[in-house]
Amino acid sequence: MFRALKHQVNVLESVATSSFSAWRGCLVVKAVPQPEKPLILFDIEACPFCRKVREALTALHLDAEIRPCPKGGRIFRAEAEAVGGKKQFPLLVDQNTGETLYESDAIVEYLFRQYANRPVPGYYKGKSWQTALGAAGSAASELRGMRARPAKRPAQTLHLWSFEGSPFSRLVRERLCEFEIPYTLHNLGKEHWTEIGPAVQRIKPGPYEPEAGGKRDAFFQAHGRVQVPYLEDPNTGQKLFESARILAYLEKEYAM
Fold it and tell me: pLDDT digit string (tens) for 61-80?
């Protein structure tokens, strides 16, 4: 009972985090083709500057290989320093162009210019007051996803279907970051305003029908529904919906 209550409290905290971020990272601005080689993001889930980059990835429907670098982490922080020259996050590595970028605003500008061939929309441009709101958003979630916890290292990268503004998905990303578990982030942002709302009660009434030919349509054809978070672990064969189930699985399988 206590665990279920705590989870609901954490969900409400995550809703507050999304609210402080003005719910950016929910709707797709422009769905762009996936690059030939995956983008690599060295990331701290609770960092408000990293959050801005993940919001842009959702806005463009871009997937990425996430290398969690929580404070106190011992797995990817040294690799990030070797790649970029300093332990500063976010750090984006684009294997397609050879670009290695720090600074969230520079990364967001690069992503929109390189992959959408357009300037950054006003909604995603950096503003002076966003830093304070971003920090408040991280505080609202008790800074989960900021510091490393002892965990086993999987042999193969996990796969997470998510979008940045999803409060339920954030809870899973926080745990993956704390455990320093690398994962492929498959962005599954909402492709139309009628998709706003939870999976069970979207704005548009009636049976859910994703836009034909999109990433959500492909997911729907494979699973019969579009719901995040969804986790696949190739190390164990587990395939899970529902944040509470996924968190319980990660604790059982990887916590030390």
Answer: 999 999 999 999 999 999 99
